[in-house]
Amino acid sequence: MSHLTLQTDAIAAVKSADLVIEAIVENLDVKKKLFASLDKAAPQNTIFASNTSSISIGDIAAATNRRDRFGGLHFFNPVPVMKLVEVIRIPETSDETFTALETFGKTVGKKTVQCKDTPGFIVNRLLVPLMMEAIRLVERGVASPQDIDTAMKLGAGYPMGPFELADYVGLDTTKFIIDGWHQKYPDDPLYKPSEILNKLVEEKKFGIKSGEGFYTYSNK
Q1: Cα(3)–Cα(21) distance, rounded to whole angstroms?
Q2: Cys-Cys with 92: which of 67, 159, 208, 218 at CB 3.0–4.6 Å?
């Protein structure tokens, strides 16, 4: 902790930074606004990275004049426990930048995997459609959330079923991700919105954090 310096002024914080990692709200416009301001304040050699879990790195980088020094570093919650970080590059990311990002991930004790800029990168590209297809099974009356979770845990060896995972991630977050992908790729059935998910979010049933989602929780 003695090596950490806290700063509440983002502009001041980046003026001597070698690497800037953004981890703010999952909103493209907000991220672009932040990076546009940081781009003017940070040294020319400073590398920018986003911790976004679902937004295109290229779309975020478009707000800056350093696309060759821009990439993704996607950590997983809870960060102290989860060992993985996805290192994402856009076509303009230089080899030097990408190597620096991967080296940083390894230096902080993470296992790194490389990925090109694509919706959800590796993990969420697989997990979010899985959760959505599980929800569609319920919508079609095929099985209950409880039985689907049990089947995936005992039959596929998953530590959490898709509905438990959706409640953990947050149904509002899951909806935000799938809506964004559907808007960008409207013809892809993987990203088709769900009536059940939309209804739960409309009712403020976000999962664990609100006390109710597909399951009911005691938040006492």
Answers
A1: 17
A2: 67
Given 3.50.30.40, 3.30.470.20, 3.40.50.970, 3.40.50.720, which CATH number is that of 10-116?
A: 3.40.50.720
Question: For residue 91, what are the contacts with CB-CB under 8 A and spacing of at least 6?
Answer: 58, 117
pTM, to two decimals? 0.89
Instruction: Mention every residue, 6+ apart, whose C-beta is less than 8 A from residue 146.
Output: 163
List, in order, residues 6 or more apart from 174 with CB less than 8 Å away: 128, 131, 166, 197
Average pLDDT, the chain: 95
H or E, element range at 59: helix 57-61
The domain ranges of the chain are 10-116, 123-210
DSSP assignment of 134-198: HHHHHHTTS--HHHHHHHHHHHS--SS-HHHHHHHH-HHHHHHHHHHHHHHSTT-GGG---HHHH
Based on the residue annotation, tell me whether 3 is a catalytic residue of this protein. Answer: no
Select which of 31, 66, 74, 205 is catalytic. 74
123-210 classified as CATH 1.10.10.10: no
